[in-house]
Design goal:
about 20% strand, Aspartate Aminotransferase, domain 1, DUF6194 family protein, globular, DUF6194, alpha+beta, six-stranded antiparallel β-sheet
Length: about 140
């Protein structure tokens, strides 16, 4: 599965998404504020992140901000050691696991289906966060 196909899924299937490219990442946000992305994608290493060896030909990483309960179901043992260069395996994000971000390199087959489901969940989490902020602005 290509990075572009996942980007197209986000752009075409999920409403109210904005996109920003910076530092070799593509960031996807719910709404116009662009504060906290719900998904990021990286296709190359940079000075701040080389743990997944993304400079390999065709390798990319999808980073997804899921709910706390989903994160905890996926990773019952957070102390586990992870090889962040492994393809097609969900792992806690190497830097943003505390914010319940998961990652996968080059998802395929069943893992691709799961990737889309996790992206949809992350979009919903971001929408709920956005709606809470909007409600607080209008009630305060």
């Amino acid at each position: 599965m290509s990075l572009q196909a996942i980007e197209q899924f986000i752009a075409k299937q999920l409403p109210n998404v904005t996109q920003l490219e910076s530092f070799g990442y593509t960031f996807f946000f719910y709404g116009p504020e662009q504060v906290l992305p719900f998904v990021t994608m990286a296709a190359s290493d940079n000075e701040h992140d080389s743990v997944s060896d993304l400079n390999r030909d065709g390798v990319f990483r999808v980073n997804i901000g899921v709910s706390k309960s989903t994160y905890n179901k996926l990773f019952e043992s957070p102390e586990a050691e992870w090889d962040y260069t492994t393809l097609n395996r969900f792992m806690p994000h190497p830097h943003y696991a505390a914010q319940h971000f998961i990652c996968i390199l080059n998802p395929e087959e069943d893992q691709l289906t799961a990737t889309y489901k996790f992206i949809e969940e992350a979009h919903l989490v971001a929408k709920q966060r956005f709606d809470r902020k909007q409600s607080a602005k209008h009630s305060g």
